[in-house]
Amino acid sequence: MAKSKGATTVARQVELIIRRLGSVSTLPEVAAVFLSHLGGQGTSTATLSDVIESDAALTAKVLSLAQEKGVVFTEDIPTISEAVTKLPRPLIRDAVLSVKVFQAFDSDFDPDRSRLLPRKQLALHALAVACCAKAIADEVLDAKDRPMAFSAGLLHDIGKLAVDEVMPRSFIKIVEQAKSQKAPLHMVEKEHLGLDHTIIGKRLAEKWFLPEDIIRAIWLHHSDLEVIAENMPAARIALTVQVADAMARQAGIGHSGSFDTPESVAQACELLGLSAEQVETIRGKLADAVSERSALLGLGEPGGTAAYCDLISEAAARLATDHTDLSAAHKQTAAGSAQMEFVSDFLRGVGANETALDVISRFAVQWQKHFQTGPVCAYVVESADEPFVEAVTVDARGRTGAVLVNVPPETEAIPAGLQHTFAVADAAEHSGWIFEQMDFDIDLGRARIAPLLSCGRAVGVVIFEARMPFDPAERPELFASVAAVGGTLAALATARGRHSRLAERFAELLGRLKQTRGRLTEAQSLAGIAEMAAGAAHELNNPLSLISGRAQLLYDTETDESKKGMLKQIQSRTAEITQIVTDLMSFARPRTPEPQMVTILEVVNEAIGVICTQRGLAQIETTLEDIEGLGDVYVDREQVVTAIVNVLSNSLDSYKGGNGPVTISARCAQPQDAVCLKIIDSGCGMDGATLAKACQPFFSARPAGRKRGMGLSHSVRLLELNGGSLAIASEPEKGATVTITLPNT
Predict the structure, then answer these.
(1) Which CATH architecture has domain 501-588?
(2) For residue 228, which of 355, 392, 578, 631 sits 20 to 30 Å off, Cα-Cα?
(3) Domain chopping of the chain, boundaries
(4) Which residues contact 22 (CB under 8 A, 6 or more apart)?
(5) For the chain, what is the mean pLDDT?
(6) Cβ atoms of 489 and 361 closer than 8 Å
(7) What pLDDT, in 10s, does the model give residues 601-648?
(8) What superfamily does domain 2-304 belong to in CATH?
(9) Closest alpha carbon to 742 in 154, 726, 728, 731
(10) Is the pTM of this model over 0.70?
(11) What's the CA gap between 256 and 184, in Å, rounded?
(12) How many Cβ atoms from other residues are within 10 Å of residue 340's Cβ?
């Protein structure tokens, strides 16, 4: 339970940081190209549209701006071209200038080149997915859905850009681990952050009010294909983006940050109704399409950073002039009561996808502005069971912040006297525990606390430094109405967020259901194998013994060498049949493990000895790396030795000489309450299709009659019985790496 709460806290901290982003960064080359077009009087709207819709950061910013300004799109389908046509050019310019530029001012040095995953490579991958998604959409989607496919593909990895933006060091470590383990990036993100870029991207897309089809594509592009097709008919664009992502990775255009082998797109193409001929046509045109877009953005041109630095000065000067004119023309109406003005300003900025934290942050800013208070702190209590609250702060200069604050044991996050009745109380008496945990300058002697009520129940509080000429506790009616509006909207946002997380959980459970079905089918198959093997053993052993015995008697009396050879062959074949039945029984009905504490080094050395005996070799070419440092595991020694022997046998078979080399290494990330080792060979390796079936019973890539295909499947079976696991990574002609995990308690 404590570990689960810790993971939840990390995930919420990450969400808290990520949601502060107003946009992700664009590349300096892209900014330079855009600003040069924007400054030119003769630049057409179509040219600006082409540049914007080819860059993820600019696309997200302009679509968000269009929603904020209430742009009405034709047939309610948001597109960049229509947004650029309908939005004033100065407004577009200001929005783009607000987008940060990635490492823009290192004009003498390009640090992006030295990164393991350069930002340009992410941009090229996004362009490849976008171009591929558009080509697929033109073939299989309805006409009304096609315009959205390109933008959905371009923005599918926006969550990666966000993580790289706010936690660059963590992102580098995640990419390094993904590379070392040849793993999908989203799996490593989940391990480090408690959530992956699909959920992070979904949260940002919702905050920026991006179209629902784009939000679904960002969220679901790593989800199970069949689950999407069967349960989410509205998510065909998401399915299209998932196929485009795999095809872009297979084409090797840019880099996504994942180092596992891309999955086959055959099944997904079948679900979309995309033929093999259409797939090949799209693949053939993809590189040219990406090259055209890349050239439009100037990604291949040198000196992009320097060009941007020159243009930004000119653009900033134009912006200052426009801003002065706008400020002079802007006159704010002072009519109406203070409460109505508060509510009007507050509601004007509230969006449909805002979280409770967004709502309460906006509320705190308006509270300080309209009531002319000092620093303000506010928070919403989403669940009484959570050991923390997410608090927003507005300092004396109007700067906002957010922090996760632990609720001390035996302390109520909302004071008892304020949970059902509105009042303004002394904050020092109730809220000292909050400010002990944060670096926030507020005079508790002048601070007051008031509840945010919704349907007669407090969902949060606002704490503020009173600077009025009167005590707010004596005139609570001035604050009650606006506090109720804030509480109601915060409660709605909390309910919406809870619903969204339940939907995400439901989608995850649907994927797990498919896996469970597969395991159930496998278990049923194993049960059938067990029954067949038991029957075969009963029915065949006696006849086989009789055949073998009679063949031996005839062999002993026979003088013809040719006939003796045939009799010997009969005995050999009956022995093989008997061994097949024995192997089936051992796989389908293994004995119950008898675990004991044993060192990994002992297990590995014993397995090497067994494989040498089996192959009649004095030794095999093996290298042990840090195995002695792994310590003990709690397993059935015989079963784990057998599992490792099968893996070693498979590794040796991948070499023509059958003798290695094989490396057994502990130089990898060690999980909690378990140990991990890798068995690495440099043999012939496996392609994707072979790798997918490698651990299935009876599968063998060798010619028929050579082996029964039980080795790796038997290893998986034995390791799972002992609480362990086995995973394989491989590429043709590059060998294979088998990762074995075993419990140490």
Answers:
(1) Orthogonal Bundle (1.10)
(2) 355
(3) 2-304, 338-498, 501-588, 596-743
(4) 98
(5) 83
(6) no
(7) 999 999 999 999 988 888 888 999 999 888 899 999 999 999 999 999
(8) Hypothetical protein af1432 (1.10.3210.10)
(9) 726
(10) no
(11) 9
(12) 12
